Amino acid sequence: MTELIKERMPKHVAIIMDGNGRWAKKRGVPRLAGHRAGMEAMKKAVNHSDALGIKYLTVYAFSTENWKRSMEEVSGIFKLLVTFVNRDLRELIDNNVKVKVLGDYSSIPDASLKALEKTIEDTKDNTGLQFNIALNYGGRDEIRRAVEAIGERCANGEIAPEDITEELIGSYMWTGSEHADAPDPELIIRTSGEYRLSNFLLWQSAYSEFVFSDVLWPDFTDEEYDRCIADYQSRERRFGGR
Ligand code: IPE
Ligand code: IPE
Ligand code: MG
Q1: Which residues are CB-neighbours of 172 under 8 A, at least 6 positions away?
Q2: Of residues 47, 66, 95, 126, which has the active-site annotation?
Q3: Is 18 a catalytic residue?
Q4: CB 119 near ligand 2, within 6 Å
């Protein structure tokens, strides 16, 4: 068992859940079976984050680039998401979890959209773990949207260019005060042995610690999660100071 230091638990953990396809390939099953197993791993990660006293969990579920995949895979992923929110909603509410979506998910299929909106609405007053699902999310897209919105406010004279502070820019991110209202993640985990951000939380990751796990996402257990947090807790964070 991995010993964790309670006082040094990150407030916000973000996870790039990668490796569903390779997990399926290893077993000779369809990619969608990998995504289904990935949903189960995601559910476990929600429960374990809650048990550890983490306040915010953000998972990368679908990127703005993932539309490049086959229609079959894309629509399958969204169907699985509906199954997840419908089947597990009651449990999320009972566990006091608040669900938010990061990203413009208005373009996802209608059934998925409705199920998600219901979940967001039904959990909005919950005060426990905040579970952010990054869906149709892209870091550059997020920054572009912020620039557009701030540009509009400048153009109509509401604010002057010199009023554009880092705080103001941050408030226009999906994690900003107007939307999910979450602090920057102290820890970003990526599974499946890939060492890149793939357009995830570009603005918010300025001083995040990165932990890479070789485990394929569907095989990600509570024990592996603990090991990632222990790795984070062994780091010295300096923020540019000495
Ligand atoms: C991550 O698993 C899930 C999504 C990107 C939706 P992948 O589907 O990327 O799995 P690999 O990388 O092909 O193994
Ligand atoms: C990142 O994984 C996106 C999600 C986990 C949703 P990808 O599998 O899409 O990233 P690349 O293509 O390997 O960079
Ligand atoms: Mg991948």
Answers
A1: 145, 146, 149, 150, 178
A2: 66
A3: yes
A4: no
